[in-house]
Amino acid sequence: MTEETELIELLKKKDRAAFKDIVETWQNMVYNTALGILQNAEDAEDVTQETFVQVFESVSSFKGESKFSTWLYRITVSKARDHIRKKKRKKRFAFIQSLYGRNDEPVIDPPDFFHPGVGMENKENAAVLFKAVEQLPGNQKTAFVLNKVEGLSYIEIGNIMQITDSAVDALLQRAKANLKKILKEYYSAFNKNE
Amino acid sequence: MKDEFINKKIDAAMHSLDGIEKASPRPFLFTRLEARMQTEKNVWYKLSSFVAKPIVAFACICLVLIINASVILLSDTKSNALTQTSPELATADEYSQISSTIYEFENVKP
User: What Å distances lie between residue A92 and A86, A97, B68, B83, CA to CA?
Assistant: First the structure.
């Protein structure tokens, strides 16, 4: 029995020490994924906590058919996407700022998320890229974050999203094409305003 | 020239996540997690979060409106029934045959 399996068995018995070990082992992975999707440190911490609460409550349903990390990634992604949905629902009742200014000129929304893992030399460019990632459809965003921020292979992403490797490849191709389009619009508008 | 500049910027942005390091949460995440789980165990917390659900809140509002409407409708039919069952009272009232004030009792002629 591996150490991981042992920890899971202990967690099924609601062992506090095992739960602590699991949280400390996987917290960076869960937080980093949530941060990539949500682009907000507080929201990412919130989702990290929600993920581990879910793990504690439903570990008995984990049958070991997939890797524990895959199961954990699935919960994280689903919680992060739920969080985005909840936020959008709240925004519907609030005042939504128009994308266009008074003269129908596109307003440049400056990037405001700086990932702490990006080096200084790439900080500005990464912030612009994250702003563009925010506009991608859900599945493309998830695949892109898992690939670029978490550094996962197509097979691993396929297992998490429960799709084939070729579907992951197609998702990433579409994500990249969409990102280039969004970035082109952004830099063109930025150039015009300068 | 302008397109070249834009393409360069796009390429730079697309490769800006190469070599990205993993972010870590603030220290003592487990302590905060335990505190959260304790709070969520609380009965009042469970109750308030249940009531705060939009579907539950909406159902409660509907229930209050239905109760209000039924009370109004029922009281309306009851008052109609009362007026129908006591025609003698209505007639007496109309012809002032019933005195209800002390002043009128004192001034009753023999």
Answer: 10, 11, 30, 52
> pLDDT of A33-85, one tens digit each?
999 999 999 999 999 999 999 999 999 999 888 999 999 999 999 999 999 99
CA–CA distance, A24 with B33 (Å, rounded to integer): 11
Helix (H, G, I), strand (E, B) or coil at A184: helix
Closest-CA residue of chain A to B10: A183
CB atoms closer than 10 angstroms to residue A10? 17
Tell me the residues of B at the A interface, defined by beta carbons under 8 Å apart: 2, 5-6, 9-10, 12-14, 16-26, 29-30, 32-33, 36-37, 40
Counting one residue from chain A and one from chain B, the pairs whose CB atoms sit within 8 A come to 93
- A148/B17 touch (CB, cutoff 8 Å), yes or no: yes
- First-to-last C-alpha distance (Å) of chain B: 119
Residue in this structure with the two tokens 């197509």, named with its chain if needed: A154
Quick: pLDDT tens for A144-187: 999 999 999 999 999 999 999 999 999 999 999 999 999 999 99
Q: Which residues contact A117 (CB under 8 A, 6 or more apart)?
A: A32, A149, B20, B21, B22, B23
Residues of A in contact with B5 (CB under 8 A): 191
Instruction: Copy the structure tokens of residue A92.
Output: 């519907």
| Contact in structure between A35 and A115 (CB atoms under 8 Å) | yes
Give, as one character, the DSSP assignment of residue B1.
-
Q: Please tell me the distance in Å from A106's CA to the nearest CA on chain B.
A: 17
